[in-house]
Amino acid sequence: MPTIDRKLGVAVCGVGWCASQHIAAFLRNPHTQVTWLCARDAARATANLEKYGLRVPNARITTRYEDLLGAPDVDLVSIATPNHLHADEAVAAAAAGKHLLLEKPTGLDTAELVRIRDAVRRAGVRTIVSFELRYNPYLRFARWLRTAGWLGDIRFARTQYLSRVTDWYSGWNWVRTRASGRSHLLAAGCHAVDALRWCSGLEPIAVSALHTRFTEGYEYPTSIVANMTLERSALGHVTSSTDFMLPYTFLVELMGDRATLRQDVLQWLDQPVDVAALAAANPFSDVSLEPASDESGRPVIRIRCVMPDSADVAHHPFQAEIDELVACILEDRETSISVFDAQKTMEVCLAADRSAEHDGQPIALPLIAD
Question: What are phi and psi of 133, to 5 degrees?
Fold first, then answer.
């Protein structure tokens, strides 16, 4: 429970590009106070705070993760370190009774996923995993279209995560390695897998994947395509790549038996969607709809909102994620993206990688028994 001026004490582990957005969001939340920062290099952490325009004068900086776990003014630990550190740090924080914000990927193999799951279950702490694109207005609207019945029963879902990541990225030295990045799906494309699960509402039950490598510098394949059998006889597809010469692209398509969502366009065949009725039912003030036509002159509905179209973490909705975690801690309830839910996304990624390593052999899901 809150320990400082009735606020939750927050420790942020890893003070880099992504963590800067965690810190900024915690500073804006009225129920939290950043009390500790942990980094491999204290001087570099201080320089990064200045670089990103962050002022946390009351926070202590340490290079020892153990200091956070033993600190009485830490209720919540935010983990934004290289991928291979996530599992050990999450397990240790849970054992110390600290609530968790955990960057993706949560774990790099099934053993790590089980260790995290079991540690959190034993401790009873609250967790949230940074699949923060679930808070993007377009993804929220896409999911609502499906849950409200405007698309009908989903027959096919497709997502893509295409981002040209090379040595411009601040984490290049570790993300390119098999030891820490591990695979393109685990390092990046897991966002697309999570979007497919969340927007379609259907869990993958088998996956078959193929991968290849074009971009130099990586120790693992740099493109993967995964075909999935989903619940209710539906099909799914995910592409994750750093090889393509195009701007950052995050695509979501949901094809139902009533209508089809193809990124920012809603289409249909025989039974038109009433744009006025849809606009009246739309619960999101940051999403607007307008009648339009496709390239052949057929009527469609155009969706206007902030799209998931930037790789810059400053564009990602971390504030909503962190606000949800804080509210769930204070109200003692589960978050919508706990480590238990995120584990399902990670299992799909691991199954796809396993299939690709065996020339597309189908892999059944789940990988882990509850």
Answer: -65, -15
Phi, psi of 264 (to 5 degrees): -95, 20
DSSP state of 60: E
Q: What are phi and psi of 104, to 5 degrees?
A: -80, 155
Confidence at 3, pLDDT banded by 50, 70, 90: low
- CA 196 from centroid of its chain's CA atoms: 11
Angle at CA 207, nearest 5°, toward 203 and 211?
135
Within a 10 A sphere around the Cβ of 46, how many other Cβ atoms? 14
Contact 367, 350 (CB under 8 A): yes
7 DSSP assignment: B
Alpha helices (runs of H) in 201-314, residue ranges in sequence order: 275-281
Confidence tier at 4 by pLDDT (50, 70, 90): low
The confidence band for 210, taking pLDDT boundaries of 50, 70 and 90, is very high
- Distance (Å, whole) CA 254 – CA 238: 12
With b for 16 or more beta-carbon neighbours within 10 A and e for fewer, the 253-271 pattern comes to bbbbeebbbebbebbbeee
- pLDDT, tens digit, 9 for 90 and up, residues 260-307: 999 999 999 989 999 999 999 999 999 999 999 999 999 999 999 999
DSSP H or E stretch at residue 171: none
Residues 6+ apart with CB under 8 A from 53: none
Question: Of 230, 249, 207, nearest to 157 (Cα)?
Answer: 230
